[in-house]
């Protein structure tokens, strides 16, 4: 129980900090939700972009260099 | 007066020289022949040669050596890039949401119809700002109180059912420690206060109003006594009192300056000074806040132009949004060297600064007569209303005739005059001196405690106005809400009184706060700082702690 309460406190503390930094603290609930969704969409797209393009690109680069090295050896 | 008379051209008589151009040309000529001539020569030469600077110092008035003066105006810690960026992103989100709101819901407010071909009535940005940014935090402003604003006050609680478009009273009241009023010396006491008996007698004798201007049937012995006492208090020849502090500036400045005068005005000057300068039709050039080097640059350029009837530096003693103190000794030195004049607004500093409460002149160790016009208000330290202008007798006579307040505005209410008189007299007794010391002690204690919390406070160590930077509107609102819940009434300030991204909480200390009250405040503030993450300062390492 103690642990659960701690965790809950931790989350509510950082949720308030997030609201304050993004100025969402003082807006209506529906506006909060709109911005949460916007943020969620943007960050998911970033994540997906990084995952699909950047990470796989780097993986390709790395595999090609290992291939080269293998050939040299 | 000594300093200005030495030059052979009395500074104050220059200040109050009649606004007729011929006369003034004559004076200006004399001034140039007498003192500034050499300077002009230096300037002319320097324009021909590229190495103007050396020529300048050989031929003209030498530049000021600022290292000899205390030009430290107070600390102004810059925020990190991250804080600045986040603040702007937050503002952007707010504006965006406001825009969406405006698109979706038509607010029930006045709209302009059938006005093709006319100028718009409302400024679009201002209406947008007040509807979608200001409204959301409106519960933190204009809060009604129902008691004297002493060390404690009673807030009348409000609630809103329509997201702050309108408020209703809940019928509840909340007793709070007052960290918002400008009650520096604690003279706002109400019944049982130190000035109570005198004020009561004045009401009995004169009533509340005189229904007349000073120049007509509005002068009582009380007013004359007050003017004499004020002049003696400040250490100058004469003083003039006005029923309203704001009006003292806006009505006094047009009496002193006119077209063809140049005002060098501090960037953070109060609205009353700005309005007064505009009404005076004086040309205004603004120098960066408390920046004597910038001021010198502007002043030298203005003198070199040689076309100004008078050049006046307009500054305040303590700046109420920054908590900074003017570097007065440096300004007086500059003014003397370049033969300028100085208008000093002591609204927040008189009574609150200096070993004996004489204001920023005493704090900076400057002779009061070296400042051409001393202006101040009685609304803060003296717990009354109105303002004064003090200086040489000649100056005061001139303002009596040419400033509009003495002739056209209602004279100061007699009980108010009595309150100021009693407070001013009390200030020179041991009990009064104790108040001045107490204020200083409280200020140092509170500022020191805030500094240890790692928050960004602005201003000078001795200034009883302590702004705490919180940057965003949300943090300002959250801080004010939480402090109110802890029983502390403070004021949050945001745009338009400050830059859009520099919202702050302003604490005003008072001699009437006890140490226990301040400790309670410090405890509450510490809790809020930890909860909301306000410890922005990097000046000193500190622990960021989660709330227990
Ligand atoms: C520098 C300055 N001048 C003038 C005034 C106006 O004084 P009053 O409030 O007495 O009208 C103020 C008030 O806050 C002020 O800060």
From TrEMBL, chain A:
UniProt KW Transmembrane helix keyword: yes
Keywords for the protein's UniProt record, in alphabetical order: Membrane, Transmembrane, Transmembrane helix
Transmembrane segments: 33-54
Source taxon at top rank: Eukaryota
Protein name per UniProt: Uncharacterized protein
From TrEMBL, chain B:
GO molecular function: pyridoxal phosphate binding; serine C-palmitoyltransferase activity
InterPro entries, sorted: Aminotrans_II_pyridoxalP_BS, Aminotransferase_I/II_large, AON_synthase_class-II, PyrdxlP-dep_Trfase, PyrdxlP-dep_Trfase_major, PyrdxlP-dep_Trfase_small
All copies of domain Aminotransferase class I/classII large, residue ranges: 175-524
EC number: 2.3.1.50
Residue spans crossing the bilayer: 81-105
Catalysed transformations (reactions): L-serine + hexadecanoyl-CoA + H(+) = 3-oxosphinganine + CO2 + CoA
GO cellular component: membrane; serine palmitoyltransferase complex
Top-level taxon in the UniProt lineage: Eukaryota
This protein's UniProt keywords: Acyltransferase, Membrane, Pyridoxal phosphate, Transferase, Transmembrane, Transmembrane helix
Gene Ontology terms: biological process: ceramide biosynthetic process; sphingosine biosynthetic process
Catalytic class of the enzyme: transferase
Names of required cofactors: pyridoxal 5'-phosphate
Protein family per UniProt: Belongs to the class-II pyridoxal-phosphate-dependent aminotransferase family.
Protein's UniProt name: serine C-palmitoyltransferase
Lineage, highest ranks first: Eukaryota, Metazoa, Ecdysozoa, Arthropoda, Hexapoda
């Amino acid at each position: 129980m103690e642990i659960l309460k701690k965790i809950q406190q931790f989350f509510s503390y950082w949720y308030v900090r997030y609201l304050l930094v993004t100025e969402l603290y003082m807006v209506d609930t529906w506006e909060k939700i709109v911005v949460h969704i916007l943020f969620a969409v943007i960050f998911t797209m970033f994540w997906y972009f990084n995952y699909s393009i950047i990470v796989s690109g780097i993986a390709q680069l790395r595999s090609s260099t290992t291939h080269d090295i293998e050939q040299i050896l | 007066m000594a300093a200005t008379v030495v030059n052979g051209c009395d500074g104050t008589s220059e200040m109050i020289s009649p606004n007729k151009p011929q006369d003034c040309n004559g004076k200006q000529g004399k001034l140039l022949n007498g003192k500034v001539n050499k300077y002009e020569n230096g300037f002319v030469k320097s324009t021909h040669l590229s190495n103007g600077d050396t020529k300048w110092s050989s031929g003209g008035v030498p530049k000021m050596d600022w290292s000899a003066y205390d030009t430290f105006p107070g600390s102004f810690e810059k925020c990190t890039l991250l804080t600045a960026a986040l603040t702007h992103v937050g503002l952007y989100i707010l504006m965006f949401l406001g825009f969406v709101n405006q698109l979706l819901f038509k607010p029930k407010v006045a709209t302009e119809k059938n006005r093709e071909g006319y100028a718009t009535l409302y400024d679009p940005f201002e209406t947008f700002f007040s509807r979608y940014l200001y409204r959301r935090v409106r519960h933190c402003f204009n809060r009604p109180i129902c008691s004297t604003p002493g060390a404690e006050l009673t807030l009348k609680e409000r609630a809103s059912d329509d997201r702050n478009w309108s408020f209703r009273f809940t019928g509840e009241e909340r007793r709070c420690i007052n960290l918002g009023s400008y009650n520096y010396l604690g003279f706002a006491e109400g019944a049982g206060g130190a000035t109570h008996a005198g004020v009561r007698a004045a009401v009995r004798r004169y009533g509340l109003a005189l229904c007349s201007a000073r120049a007509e049937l509005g002068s009582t012995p009380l007013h004359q006594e007050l003017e004499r006492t004020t002049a003696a208090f400040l250490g100058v020849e004469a003083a003039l009192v006005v029923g309203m502090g704001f009006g003292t500036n806006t009505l006094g400045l047009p009496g002193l300056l006119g077209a063809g005068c140049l005002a060098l005005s501090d960037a953070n000057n109060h609205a009353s000074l700005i309005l007064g300068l505009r009404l005076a039709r004086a040309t205004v050039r603004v120098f960066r806040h408390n920046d004597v080097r910038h001021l010198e640059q502007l002043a030298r350029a203005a003198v070199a132009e040689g076309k100004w009837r008078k050049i006046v530096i307009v500054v305040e003693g303590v700046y109420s949004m920054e908590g900074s103190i003017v570097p007065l000794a440096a300004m007086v030195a500059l003014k003397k060297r370049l033969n300028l004049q100085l208008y000093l607004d002591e609204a927040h500093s008189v009574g609150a600064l200096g070993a004996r409460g004489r204001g920023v002149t005493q704090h900076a160790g400057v002779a009061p007569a070296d400042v051409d016009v001393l202006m101040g208000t009685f609304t803060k330290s003296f717990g009354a209303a109105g303002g004064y202008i003090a200086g040489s007798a000649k100056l005061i006579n001139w303002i009596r005739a040419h400033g509009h307040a003495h002739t056209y505005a209602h004279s100061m209410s007699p009980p108010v005059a009595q309150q100021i008189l009693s407070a001013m007299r009390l200030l020179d007794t041991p009990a009064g001196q104790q108040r001045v010391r107490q204020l200083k002690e409280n200020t140092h204690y509170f500022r020191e405690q805030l500094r240890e919390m790692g928050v960004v406070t602005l201003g000078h160590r001795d200034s009883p106005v302590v702004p705490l930077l919180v940057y965003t509107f949300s943090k300002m609102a959250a801080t004010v809400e939480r402090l109110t819940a802890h029983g502390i009434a403070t004021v949050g300030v945001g745009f338009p009184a400050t830059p859009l991204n520099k919202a702050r909480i302003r604490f005003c200390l008072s001699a009437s706060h006890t140490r226990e009250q301040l400790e309670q405040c410090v405890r509450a503030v510490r809790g809020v700082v930890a909860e909301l993450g306000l410890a922005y300062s990097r000046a000193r390492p500190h622990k960021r702690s989660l709330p227990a």
